[in-house]
Amino acid sequence: MILLQAGDIFRSATPGTSMLYYFGFALLGVVSLVLIGAMLSRGRRPRTDVEIQQYSAGVFRRTAKAMGLPGPHIEVLEKLVQACKLKQPMLVFSSAGLLDDTLKKGLFSLDAARELSEAERENRKTLIFQIKQIIERNARKGTAVHSTTFLRPGQVLAITPENGGAFSSRVVSNMKDFLTVSAPTQPTGAETRWARGTRLSVYLWRENDAGYSFVTKILGYDTVKGVSSMLIQHSKTVRREQRRKSRRKELMRPCFFYPIRITETGEGRKAERKAIVEQNLRTLGTVVDLSAGGCAIQTLNPFERGKLVMVEFDIDRKAPVRAFGKVQHAHRQKARGGSMHIMFTRVTRQHLNRISEFVYDFTRPASITAAARPPADRPAPGRG
């Protein structure tokens, strides 16, 4: 009807006025197209920064919770991500480098916050290190080994034949039908060969993951990549033996450790137990490696499993770190003493933070974002 009415108008109009009608009709059509295009584009327009921020915040928190982070840790990490103005904040859960850089900036901004008490500063540092530990530990959950087909060349193995001692070996190549490992040798260097079909118990340790074991049998022998090798059967049943909760790092620093004696006074409910560090029985050793959960000590006089100890050692040539712990494992070696694996049971928050800073190598970053940088009139103190 509108078009018919418009046609009648044009036919009844004079030549001069008909041009005006044509122009007005065309202008109306252009305006209509613009309005329709605006309505369509409005439905497809990108969300504003506020909308993206709200959506990302929710996804960020849910992902952080799925990674095992408690509420206070999520809040700290979210504030650090905002302070560092990360363009892709979700990458902190999958990129170890980005996570480390973000946490480092948070640590060194705490050093510049003079309004914080020393206790509060150490508490916040502990939260940051715990964020690193939790994300790193849970990020490895999907990397567990379930079959020997996933073992890589160079992986160190401990092989124990039936009714025999353990021998050291390594993976030479991983083939479709079998696993090739270096032929075990005697201490004299002589190669050891067992009969085909001999059952073997194999143990391996994956760095920053866990210990695994599996049972296999010998298929034969050959020379692979110039190495005298043993061919063993693949196993689809690989058992996880143990898993370290915290990352370890080699230290190789001297230490002193002391036995702890437990005394008990009184009887019944009034009995009181007291731990006494026996200073006169101090023993020298070397801290081989260190983690937030414990350490390994090489010494000529290792304590027995279950013994309570106090350990003193140096990390960064500052005041010694002191930790109390319990001997979890002890290995003795003829003429060389042995080693102890100690689980820490009590460490001050300040000393635990120093251990974590060393283990994760959280050195000062090259630059700190403006959000994390201290005010211009209050420069950040240097770190030794």
CATH class of the largest domain equals Mainly Beta
State the end-to-end CA separation. 87 Å
**CATH fold-level assignment of the largest domain:** Thrombin, subunit H
SS elements, strand count:
14
The CATH homologous superfamily of the largest domain is termed: predicted glycosyltransferase like domains
Into which percent range does the helicity of residues fall? 25-40%
CATH architecture of the largest domain: Beta Barrel
The residue ranges in which pLDDT falls below 50 over 5 or more consecutive positions are 1-10, 45-55, 366-384
| Overall 3D form | flat
Question: How would you describe this protein?
Answer:
By secondary structure, this protein is an alpha+beta fold. The protein folds into 3 domains: 94 residues; 90 residues, Beta Barrel (Thrombin, subunit H); 111 residues, Beta Barrel (Thrombin, subunit H). The protein is built from 7 helices and 14 strands. Strand 5 and strand 6 form a beta hairpin. The chain starts with a helix and ends in a 25-residue tail after the last helix.
What labels would you give this structure?
single chain; 384 residues; alpha+beta; Thrombin, subunit H; disordered C terminus
What is shown here, in short?
The protein is α+β, with helices and mostly antiparallel strands.
Mind sketching the topology for me?
Blueprint lengths: L1 H11 L2 H30 L4 H18 L4 H13 L12 H17 L5 H22 L16 E6 L5 E8 L4 E4 L16 E7 L4 E15 L2 E6 L6 E5 L5 E17 L6 E6 L5 E8 L3 E6 L8 E6 L7 E13 L3 E11 L1 H11 L25
Antiparallel strand pairs: 1-2, 1-4, 2-3, 3-6, 4-5, 5-6, 5-7, 8-9, 8-10, 8-12, 10-11, 11-14, 12-13, 13-14
